[in-house]
Amino acid sequence: PGVRKEAENLFIELYKTLGPSLEKLLVGQKQAVVDKLIKEAKKQCGDVVRSDSQREEQKKAATNYIASQVKSDYLPEYIVRILGQATVELLKSANPKKRQKGLVEVKKAVSKLTVNLNDKKARELADPITHLMRQILSDESSEVYLEALKIVRYIISSLAPHLGALDLHILIGSFIGIIVSNTVSSNIRIQVSSDKVIIFFAKHSNIGPLVVARDIVKNIEKIS
Fold this sequence. Notes:
- By secondary structure, the protein is mostly helical.
- It folds into 2 domains: 1-49, no CATH class; 54-223, Alpha Horseshoe (Leucine-rich Repeat Variant).
- 75% of the residues lie in helices and 0% in strands.
- It starts with a helix and ends with a helix.
């Protein structure tokens, strides 16, 4: 009951931003429960329901913002020092095979950092890792993207036990939108692998379904 109540409060909070598009999530529920929840959400929103054109404009703006963030992103000097210039050059290569090789080197570098990892060191790594994840997950090569998903799972598994709930939420929220958008990819391998990573986050003892659900719902309009 406590989890359900929290989920209902989350629905009402997000309804203020996303409006009626959230109603399609209420599947398999008793109609009376659905009607009551939607009524309460509209009441708290002042019954303001945005037009389709307004929602479309918001969707485009959000998508363009994320795209611009990815394209203009950079690797902080701290990460460059950790990875080494040779690895960075591999990641920047026009050759997908070399970029894949660069990801292998990334995993090696991160594995060294996570030896005797403590909370302070994990927090220091969180921000530069965020930039790195956005970079590698935005790769246009399907093979590089699939390899990047493996790196994401490895890094999150290593850092999660040492990060507070807020730091972990910020870290995941910074790049989960890229993964969510690929759950509807025409490439079945990308689609299935992206789904598996989302499920992995939801089942992770330090993350959980509510954190993942919050971030997925924030991105739902961009893929609907």
